[in-house]
């Protein structure tokens, strides 16, 4: 029987009768009875204290279980975050390498454009010099052509004059040779 049942049966029945009879019992037995009663009360108090302590331990265990579950959730979240962080770092590294490759490619293309521009500039300067030289030659040829045109006119005029003179001479000779 539990302590409550024993207490109830004492109140209801034979133990309470034995308590009345205990007054009639010798002093040694009464002393043992009192000691047993004290021990029982002490055990009841300890039982109550143990139940309270057990309740506190269960409450503490429940809190610890909740904290442990929360810690596991946080650990899972951190693990996922680490995975995401590693993935982001990997993608960032790939993007960084792609960017470096693009920069290198653009730098090479830029260097090639610079070389091509230098070649074009050199070709342009050569063509400009050649053009200037041709302009000078054309100018010289024009001047020479004008001189030659003037000389040709003079020669033409002289030829015409000589032809007229020759015609006059021929006419004169003919007139001189023709007897009148």
What does this 3D model show about the protein?
94% of the residues lie in helices and 0% in strands. It contains three helices and no strands. Helix 1 (3-12) crosses helix 2.
What would the keywords be for this entry?
180 residues, mainly alpha, 3 helices
Task: Give a short overview.
This protein has 180 residues and is mostly helical. The protein has helices at residues 3-12, 14-22, 27-177.
Can you lay out the helices and strands and say which pair or pack?
Elements lengths: L2 H10 L1 H9 L4 H151 L3
Helix pairs in contact: 1-2
Radius of gyration: 69 Å
- Put simply, the count of helices is 3
Silhouette: rod-shaped
SS strand fraction: under 5%
Q: Give the overall average pLDDT.
A: 87
The helix/strand class is mainly alpha
What is the subunit organization of this protein? single chain
Order of helices and strands: HHH
Low confidence ranges: 1-17
Helix fraction by DSSP (H/I, runs of at least 4) = over 70%
Largest sheet: none
Q: What's the total number of strands?
A: 0
Q: Termini, distance in Å?
A: 198 Å
